[in-house]
Design goal:
This protein is 37% helix and 25% strand. It has two domains: 2-237, Rossmann fold (3-Layer(aba) Sandwich), CATH 3.40.50; 242-312, CBS domain Like, CATH 3.90.1280. The strands form three sheets. The chain has a six-stranded mixed β-sheet, sandwiched between helices. It has a four-stranded antiparallel β-sheet with strand order 2-1-4-5, with helices on one face. Strands 11-14-13-12 form a four-stranded mixed β-sheet. The protein starts with a strand and ends with a helix. With 315 residues, the chain is α/β, with parallel strands linked by helices. A hairpin with a 2-residue loop joins strand 1 (2-11) and strand 2. The longest helix has 18 residues, at 167-184. The structure holds adenosine-5'-diphosphate and magnesium ion. Residues 40-41 line the site of magnesium ion. Magnesium ion binds next to helix 1.
Length: 315
């Protein structure tokens, strides 16, 4: 869907990003992660030409993005940012309808779309006529995402969209985004500096430093095979075990056919949640069930400590 070939950008004689080669695949949830100033926002903004690249090629749907009129490009790409940018004197419904309004959709179609998006984002329709200052931070951010999705863009670009939220609201919105991505199958490129957010959301993860790509791959590849010391340190040696547990599911470690006593674990549960269940139930073996609730086998606490999780990433 979006491809960068040897792309660079210089501001005032200073390289902000260099020699980027990236491929954001159709329908994938891609995440750019890195420290502050590593070039994440610049990379994202080059996609919708808020920043123009000055070397290399950026392709969108197979064509150089400069060959599209800017407005056409932006219409095909929703954009949501941390500071939200809701219009303060417009209601929730008017804010969500910004782009359909510009495109002169019929009134009935706009109203139906606003209702649909509010339901999708878990916003009570009673909020339709409220103004942004009458909403919580989490609700404002949901309106911002709804607005970005309003004209059904092919691509959704998000720059630290949950950065200003408290951890609980943030976690809820991350789960919403995952659900919405699975539901709509849109191509998403999200920028964050939050490692756990990146690991939770990404199909494809790009680690940046100093304007360059350090490594890209799936979260699991990045954790288990860091390309260099920077990547290893960035993903945190000390918390690596727990992070790996949250990326793996009970089904990867189930001993099929075995029986055990205790409150059963669903096979789709993450190993991190399974770990909590072992502790809460004070047991070291628990039964595992499939999605229909039928007995599948058992999970041994000991197996969580095995192989990859404890050994693979030793320097
Ligand atoms: P990140 O989003 O990872 O924090 P940015 O892409 O915003 O990083 O910035 C990368 C580098 O480019 C930084 O050194 C920043 O100061 C510089 N930069 C970004 N935008 C501009 C701009 N409009 N003018 C000048 N320098 C910029
Ligand atoms: Mg930024």
């Amino acid at each position: 869907m979006i491809e960068f070939r040897q792309v660079s950008k210089t501001f005032n004689g200073q390289r902000a990003v260099s020699d980027l080669n990236l491929h954001f695949k159709t329908g994938a949830f891609s995440v750019l992660i890195g420290t502050s100033g590593s070039g994440k926002s610049t990379t994202l903004k080059m996609i919708n030409r808020l920043v123009e690249h000055d070397e290399g090629t950026i392709l969108f749907a197979g064509e150089e993005i400069r060959s599209f009129p800017v407005l056409t490009l932006r219409r095909r790409m929703g954009y949501a940012i941390q500071s939200i940018g809701l219009f303060p004197h417009w209601t929730v419904a008017q804010n969500i309808a910004t782009v359909p309004q510009l495109q002169k959709w019929p009134r009935a179609r706009i109203n139906a779309r606003v209702d649909e998006l509010m339901a999708l984002l878990g916003l009570d329709t009673a909020l339709r006529g409220r103004y942004p200052h009458e909403l919580s931070g989490g609700q404002q951010q949901r309106v911002g995402v709804a607005r970005a999705l309003a004209a059904d863009p092919e691509v959704l670009l998000m720059d630290e969209p949950f950065g200003a939220l408290d951890p609980v609201t943030r976690g809820a919105l991350q789960q919403e985004m995952r659900r919405i991505h699975q539901l709509l199958g849109r191509t998403i490129v999200l920028v964050t500096h939050d490692i756990d957010e990146a690991l939770q959301l990404a199909d494809h993860l790009v680690l940046m430093d100093g304007g360059q790509v350090v490594q890209q791959g799936t979260p699991l590849e990045m954790l288990t095979h860091p390309a260099n010391d920077f990547a290893r340190e960035f993903f945190g040696r000390s918390e690596l075990g727990v992070r790996l547990l949250s990326l793996r599911s009970v089904s990867d470690y189930v001993r099929r056919g075995e029986q055990a006593a205790g409150e059963p674990l669903a096979e789709t549960l993450s190993l991190r949640d399974a770990l909590s269940a072992f502790v809460a139930q004070g047991r070291d073996v628990l039964p595992v069930t499939d999605s229909q609730g039928a007995a599948l086998g058992s999970l041994h606490f000991q197996d969580l400590l095995s192989a990859e999780v404890s050994h693979e990433n030793r320097p």
